[in-house]
Amino acid sequence: MDEIQKRELAITFIKSQLYAVISTIWEGAPQAATVAFTELEDFALLFGTDNFTRKFRNLKANPKVAVVIGWDEAITIQLEGNAVVLTGAERTSCQACHFEKHPSSKDYVTETEEYIKVIPNWLRYTDISQDPEFSFEFTAFTKES
């Protein structure tokens, strides 16, 4: 399987999923939370959270995150990257994109809600339903890569 086919396989799987577990760090200790997410270009992920949650506090202190997507089908994506709080036009366009994938998220909009974009720097796709298991990693995420 070539690089383009691997990228397509990974993004197709990500698009098929609704939820992910995001791990953040607080004072050296990991903390995890399940989030509804939306995929953006170049494998970036988007999720919303209130600004009083542990994950938001943690991300403001340390933007490094780990994310796991999938588990039910014996396929997972592990992703590591940096989280950025969105503002302005980017926030507005990403929020609209998120509502397309998760229409019920509109019910949770509050004045304290923030939108976070996770910019990946490492990704691993693993399918343990195959024998032997099938996996690959990559670190180049732009279309030009």
Can you characterise this structure?
The chain has helices at residues 3-16, 54-61, 88-101; strands at residues 19-26, 29-36, 38-39, 45-50, 64-69, 75-85, 113-127, 134-138. It is α+β, with helices and mostly antiparallel strands. The protein has a single domain (3-138), classed as Electron Transport, Fmn-binding Protein, Chain A (Pnp Oxidase, Chain A, Roll). Strands 1, 2, 3, 4, 5, 6, 7 and 8 form an 8-stranded antiparallel beta sheet that branches. A hairpin with a 2-residue loop joins β1 and β2.
Task: Label the overall shape.
Answer: globular
What is the count of distinct domains?
A: 1
User: What is the gyration radius calculated from CA atoms?
Assistant: 15 Å
CATH superfamily: Electron Transport, Fmn-binding Protein, Chain A
CATH topology: Pnp Oxidase, Chain A
Give the CATH architecture.
Roll
Biggest β-sheet strands, sense, barrel:
8 strands, antiparallel
Q: Overall mean pLDDT score?
A: 92
Q: Give helix and strand order, one letter per element, not per position.
A: HEEEEHEEHEE
Identify low-pLDDT runs. none
CATH class: Mainly Beta
Percent of sequence in beta strands? 35-45%
Percentage of helical residues?
A: 10-25%
Distance between the termini: 17 Å
Multimeric state: single chain
In DSSP terms, counting alpha (H) and pi (I) runs of 4 or more, how many helices?
3
- Class based on secondary structure composition and strand pairing: alpha+beta
Number of strands: 8
Short recap of the structure:
With 145 residues, the protein is of the alpha+beta class. It has three helices and eight strands. The protein has a single domain (3-138), classed as Pnp Oxidase, Chain A, CATH 2.30.110.
